[in-house]
Design a protein that fits this description.
mainly alpha; Receptor-associated Protein; flat
């Protein structure tokens, strides 16, 4: 390993460097292994979403302990206001994979590191220097945000599309003699998809009322969790009916009629927009066809000249 003529001072320095490196690596490993980590929550909707994500996604199950461990280290970085914003975004996405705000930051950091590695390797292979590494860290860091934002938008669309049908069912149920919790229970029990976002929200409404809180509080929480126009109109109408003493069944019938009208209007608007949106692709197809038809003629004329 060392040549016979190596100076004793050089040998001592090399052994000291190796010893220092070994101590540093050992300390790092010991710190990682022995450092406390947050126990994954198993309670509430967020805990249920975490357990479901772990059972369905093997890749997430393999990195979840690391994300949870790093999340504890990141807990001192965001302020309370920033943590509330992140929690709000996760809630809008339906408690996405049961993440907490600190784990959200940790996942972004890990994704940025992975993006940096992929970008660095790609830059080396393509001889593009560190440009792809910079692009990788930016894209990797933004990937969790894009995933959660996309999940939140899709969830809001699903709730907005499904609420009119739920209002119809509740109106029929209350017209048949059920009270409001009974009508909500009908929605939850008669569904064919228990993972539907709207069913989850109505389950939370039932649980909130079952804990002794008022119907108004349950509806206000629903409108905060799903700030969609149809949801806000629905909750405001029910709250006003309760405050004024109007029959809730009659209000639901009116809301059902309004929802059906809105569905028809939205369908007509979508059909009108579809025709306008098809103009661009049709123009591209037209230019391609013209190129195929006129290209040989132009080449023949050019060759004759």
């Amino acid at each position: 390993m060392f040549s016979p003529g190596t100076s004793p001072i050089v040998l001592i320095l090399k052994f000291a460097s190796l010893a220092a490196l070994s101590i540093a690596l050992g300390s790092l490993v010991y710190g990682v292994v022995s450092a406390p980590t947050r126990v994954a929550t198993r309670l509430g909707l967020r805990g249920l979403k975490r357990q479901r994500a772990l059972a369905q996604n093997e890749a997430w199950a393999s990195i979840e302990p690391l994300v949870r461990w790093l999340g504890v280290r990141m807990s001192g970085i965001p302020t309370e206001e920033q943590r509330e914003v992140l929690d709000r975004q996760i809630n809008l996405a339906g408690d996405y994979m049961g993440l907490t705000a600190d784990e959200y930051i940790a996942l972004s950091v890990l994704s940025a590191l992975a993006g940096t590695g992929v970008g660095a390797v790609a830059g080396y292979l393509l001889e593009m220097g560190g440009l792809l590494a910079v692009a990788g860290v930016m894209l990797g860091g933004a990937l969790p945000y894009m995933q959660i934002s996309g999940a939140a938008q899709e969830r809001m669309k699903s709730i907005g599309r499904g609420l009119p049908y739920v209002i119809d069912l509740m109106a029929l149920s209350m017209g048949a003699g059920l009270d409001f919790p009974g009508a909500v229970r009908q929605v939850v029990e008669k569904t064919s998809n228990p993972d539907d976002p709207l069913v989850e929200e109505f389950t939370l409404i039932l649980q909130t009322i079952g804990l002794g809180r008022t119907r108004k509080e349950a509806l206000l929480e629903f409108s905060r969790r799903a700030p969609v126009e149809t949801v806000i109109e629905f909750t405001n109408a029910l709250i006003q009916a309760e405050e004024r003493g109007n029959p809730v069944a009659d209000v639901l019938l009116i809301q059902a009629a309004v929802s059906r009208t809105r569905r028809s209007v939205n369908a007509e608007e979508a059909a009108a927009k579809a025709g306008v949106q098809m103009v661009g692709p049709l123009m591209l197809v037209f230019f391609c066809v013209m190129g195929l038809l006129m290209g040989p003629a132009i080449m023949t004329i050019t060759a004759g000249l």
